[in-house]
Amino acid sequence: MKVQFTETVLRDANQSLIATRLPYKEFEGILETMDRAGYYSLECWGGATFDSCLRYLDEDPWERLRKIREKCPNTKLQMLLRGQNLLGYKHYPDDVVRKFVQKSVQNGIDIIRIFDALNDVRNIEVAVDETLKNGAIASGAISYTKSPIHNLEAYVKLAKEMESLGCQTICIKDMAGIMGPQEAYDTVKALKENVKVPIVLHTHSTTGLGMLTLQKAVEAGCDVIDTAISSFSGGTSQVPTETMAYALKQEGYDVALDMDVLREINDFFKPIKAKYLENGQLNPVVLSTDTDALNYQVPGGMLSNLVAQLTAQNKMDKFEEVLAETPRVRKDLGYPPLVTPMSQMVGVQATTNVLLGERYKNISKEVKAYIRGEYGRAPGEIDKDLQKKVLGDEAPMTCRFADTLEPGFEKAKKEIGALAKSDEDVLSYIAFPAQAEAFLKEREEKKHNTFSYAITKVE
Asked: Fewest CB atoms within 10 A around its CB: which of 21, 110, 269, 399?
């Protein structure tokens, strides 16, 4: 049996460990080597990379993608898309979703892994349709979680719905590393028996279950697994690529990865990891095994951001309280899976509850929007008192929220005006208005200063 690997170091591994602060210039030198490794795909875009490029790294995320594409012509490039949320934290109109998918493929993406934070399939339909229309692979992702309302039957039903939409692979997205080996075996086996498309498993090492979970998933017939090169693996990141490749090869599985090339890749990233450890951006807390995550179900990226936020406020002494509050908030909100944007919403609300010393004294606008139904159907029942506090006697909406939105691309194009030099710039502005506008203004100033310097030099 053939087992293929998706390498996550360019996206989820560095997102989980260093809050997506890895600039292009630091990994540019290894891209051509990575292209020779034999990966099924390189996960390199989407998730928090877009936001981080504009907010922290002074990079154009679209240019970053094009550069990776140029250096890696032989390996499929993969991105993570939050369905109707795209890469942001709210729902966007259908015309914006279609344009974003179209431009993602045009700029180099081959596989779009599409999920909805609530597993509301209505919220991935447009993105899946546009992905297929543009000739890319649409991978429907199940946001895996545990709760009284999430079970095997529900996941099989979800996978069937995704396959009927046209998804060419189904990914089980275990963002918090809480899927045990038996659960992995049972889930993959059930999906293989009920859908015809390949099955992918994404998990994290947070709880220490990762390698066992991937092993049993492969035994059940899993076709592709997500791993991270070993120097950026472990803790809240993924399982080490080399370890899983070695183990599966030894057991007789067909693994196409070149171990010598993997060694080169790992040697390249070792000093980068050391640098982030030394400057404090890689907090040792996120490198450790935390079995408490089996209870609070906090995903890797959420955990690293939570540590960063509390550290910045000198409130790390409240860390355990916030973790304990997180599942309580989640229950109140009807057990949404803790995946972006729900993970941030639940995490921020839990933090607010703890720091203010009173539950729901201040409710974020995002949580209010969720309770109104703007993010889709809540998986379970929302706490009645909380719902009444937000809605009064009003009932939450039942329609797909995007159906209430006016087209947004042309409006945004007029708003940003001459600062935008391409449709990609407009999409950046739509996704992150303040950050993109600041970036585009700075780009214009740099261009003007360079031009002025050139004229002066000629004179």
From this structure: 399
- pLDDT over 80 at 448, yes or no: no
Please identify which residue in the block is written with the tokens 């209505």: 122
pLDDT in tens, 309-365: 888 889 999 999 998 999 899 999 999 998 878 888 999 999 999 999 999 999 999
* Structure tokens belonging to residue 121: 């399939």
pLDDT tens, residue by residue, 409-434: 999 999 999 999 999 999 999 999 99
Q: What is the 3-state secondary structure (H, E, C) of 106-172?
A: HCCCCEEEEECCCCCHHHCHHHHHHHHHCCCEEEEEEECCCECCECHHHHHHHHHHHHHHCCCEEEE
- Whether residue 1 contacts residue 253, with contact meaning beta carbons closer than 8 Å, is answered with yes
CA atoms within 13 A on the CB side of 65: 21
C-alpha distances in Å from residue 314, one per residue of 61, 294, 310, 348, 413: 31, 26, 6, 16, 41
Q: In angstroms, rounded to a whole number, what is the distance separating the alpha carbons of residues 305 and 199?
A: 29
Cα–Cα distance for residue pair 96/402, rounded to 1 Å: 11
Token pair of 326 as six digits:
């997180």
Q: Which helix (H) or strand (E) holds 67?
A: helix 61-71
pLDDT for the residue 298: 73
Neighbours of 454 (CB within 10 A): 10
Question: Taking Cα atoms as reference points, which of 445, 416, 417, 419 lies closest to residue 433?
Answer: 416
Q: Is 392 exposed, middle or buried (0-12, 13-18, 19+ CB in 10 A)?
A: exposed
